[in-house]
Amino acid sequence: MKLSLLTKLRQQNPIVLNISNFVTVQDVANGINAIGGSPIMSEEIAETEAMVQMSRAVALNLGAFTEAQVAHIRKMGRLANEYGKPVILDPVAVGAVKYRLEVAQRLLTDFQVSVIRGNAGEIAALAEVDWAAKGIDAGEGSGDLVEIAKAAASRYHCVVILSGPTDVISDGKNVVKVENGTPLFQLHVGSGDMLSSIVGVFDAVADGDDFEAAQTACLVFAASGQLVAEELGAELPGTFSMKLMDKLHLVTEADIEKIAKFK
Amino acid sequence: MKLSLLTKLRQQNPIVLNISNFVTVQDVANGINAIGGSPIMSEEIAETEAMVQMSRAVALNLGAFTEAQVAHIRKMGRLANEYGKPVILDPVAVGAVKYRLEVAQRLLTDFQVSVIRGNAGEIAALAEVDWAAKGIDAGEGSGDLVEIAKAAASRYHCVVILSGPTDVISDGKNVVKVENGTPLFQLHVGSGDMLSSIVGVFDAVADGDDFEAAQTACLVFAASGQLVAEELGAELPGTFSMKLMDKLHLVTEADIEKIAKFK
Amino acid sequence: MKLSLLTKLRQQNPIVLNISNFVTVQDVANGINAIGGSPIMSEEIAETEAMVQMSRAVALNLGAFTEAQVAHIRKMGRLANEYGKPVILDPVAVGAVKYRLEVAQRLLTDFQVSVIRGNAGEIAALAEVDWAAKGIDAGEGSGDLVEIAKAAASRYHCVVILSGPTDVISDGKNVVKVENGTPLFQLHVGSGDMLSSIVGVFDAVADGDDFEAAQTACLVFAASGQLVAEELGAELPGTFSMKLMDKLHLVTEADIEKIAKFK
């Protein structure tokens, strides 16, 4: 866990290029901004190369893609590989919709990703482990979360973040569990998408250490949410999402160290 | 009025599939989530059938559609009919733009809707009653709101919600008026879109009783807004929209019963 | 500076038609609403003429356009010229991406704009002055902001707003500088887009005086943000964006006069 990445990214303010889920895009852009990165979004394939060149990481969200967008995602992923920029993939709802799983699996053969972030149902689907998924939620299954994360990471030669009450992060061999957080994250639709792009902000300054970037991003995000929830003292999803932006901007390494729970 | 639907939907957490207005989609998703449903949005026609199958209601918003999206909406409406899922239609701005009215009317012959929710100008246009509409707002006209709602409901064989300071809900024969609410709803752009999708959440657990679902959704939504406005005591549109999410999540049947005004 | 435009627009509630950046569209719509206008957004070229006719100003945001959207923007700009509606252009990221600069320059020969609003990097690019731009931010360059704004205004025969800690507004000959504001605007992704559309609201009621409309919109927006920041007393980007909506709705001419700093 390398909390100094938080200070480093705030000094460097790296640009993160996003293929966004239109449902959550504004929150994601504000979240990248609040933590200390610089978000850029693109919908037009003609500007992809210029965008990839000026960015330091690329976050690809499959939240509400169209067929046309898949070609754009593929081009962006390949260019990111070519220019050596880390690629974060968020495979939204691949656990629930077979069509989405097929698209995600095709993309994962078209270019190499650095980090995949999803919930248990999504990661299990990518790892081809049986898991009952329901809608955009994680579903309830009986698989071993650590084994699922490791299997997906090995299969796609990348780091995998399996998000949940406990985040499980694996590079295929090693595993870190982040136990901070709050159930309020589930009540806010953009939480997972925001985390995926924030992983991109950390990975942009991690000098190629995707595993450190992924762990640290999960810890900072989960701890920030936990701090907000503790201050609120009630289950207020609207107020939570607003104060999460405030906290992402102001949270310090020391604030996080005080409550950090990981192993 | 069947307030127990609120408890029921929170127990069942039904998935509602949405064709969304990109202007308000994030608020709509968070609103569905806050009240106790599970939102899913789709932009890709290839995944429509899988999405309809896993959903318990479908909410179709015509807020900012393109020609391509109309084909998607049509397919989704027909599949919802085939699989017996309730369909909510929000005919945004059909009172102001002739092109939109024509598209909406064509769609209403392509599949059967369960509930239409719009403002007076929109419902009057669908009912082909003269009414001066202006932009996205309701306009000011002199028609009898009850007659307009009944006419539209009879014409399209569905339940109609005519939203306004008083919501008028009709199945063509019977009429219920919900008199709760607050002018702050008008100051927040996504209010109507959010209500339409929340009607979908209620209809998902109403065992086919669209009329009860529509009334109850209107009462819960209007009363929640009124409670927030009373707590605020000032016309604060930003704070209102945030606290509305909090209230939708926490409001109880008892809270609503205390202030319910309908007949 | 004509602060009475604020009262006038609240009386008239003009419709402003927007081509929106999907990243910030909800905030922009709510901002137009909060200040006292009536927002309408469109994605479908078939309804462009009806939309332009019913609107009193048109705000064109190039934030995340696609090739298809460029044709839509062109048609909307030409129709706005034909019907005599003021046109505001927000050339997002033209300072950073050459493709975007080329598209914006082509559009600027296709129709006449009333006001261009951008940051220093964007306006410099349009004026073809060398300026180091970075991502969506203004970049840091050494050009003289006043000369850049004047050059762009002369070149495109329109009013130019060069936004920053000081807003520089020029019609090519005259220059006004608005010195109100707060660094919190930079922390909220939609601030510039919101200002551009709010310029449209002011221009809708300015009887053709684009220069007065531009100045006054900048002053009202910057002063509103400053008032919120002073009330907050801390760097809270989430809370700021919520309270900015409240302030845009409630701010009075007198509130602004008290702190107005321009020359």
TrEMBL record, chains A, B, C:
* Top enzyme class: transferase
UniProt record, GO biological process: thiamine biosynthetic process; thiamine diphosphate biosynthetic process
- Pfam families reported for this sequence: HK
Cofactors (names): Mg(2+)
* Pathway where this protein functions: Cofactor biosynthesis; thiamine diphosphate biosynthesis; 4-methyl-5-(2-phosphoethyl)-thiazole from 5-(2-hydroxyethyl)-4-methylthiazole: step 1/1
Q: Which residues bind ATP?
A: 117, 163
Q: Which residues bind substrate?
A: 41, 190
Per UniProt, which keywords does this protein have? ATP-binding, Kinase, Magnesium, Metal-binding, Nucleotide-binding, Thiamine biosynthesis, Transferase
Catalysed reaction, written as an equation: 5-(2-hydroxyethyl)-4-methylthiazole + ATP = 4-methyl-5-(2-phosphooxyethyl)-thiazole + ADP + H(+)
Give the GO molecular function terms.
Answer: ATP binding; hydroxyethylthiazole kinase activity; magnesium ion binding
In short, the EC number is 2.7.1.50
Cite the InterPro entries for this sequence: Hyethyz_kinase (IPR000417), Ribokinase-like (IPR029056)
> What family does this belong to?
Belongs to the Thz kinase family.
Q: Report the function annotation for this chain.
A: Catalyzes the phosphorylation of the hydroxyl group of 4-methyl-5-beta-hydroxyethylthiazole (THZ).
The molecule here is called Hydroxyethylthiazole kinase
- The record lists the organism as Secundilactobacillus malefermentans
State the taxonomy lineage. Answer: Bacteria, Bacillati, Bacillota, Bacilli, Lactobacillales
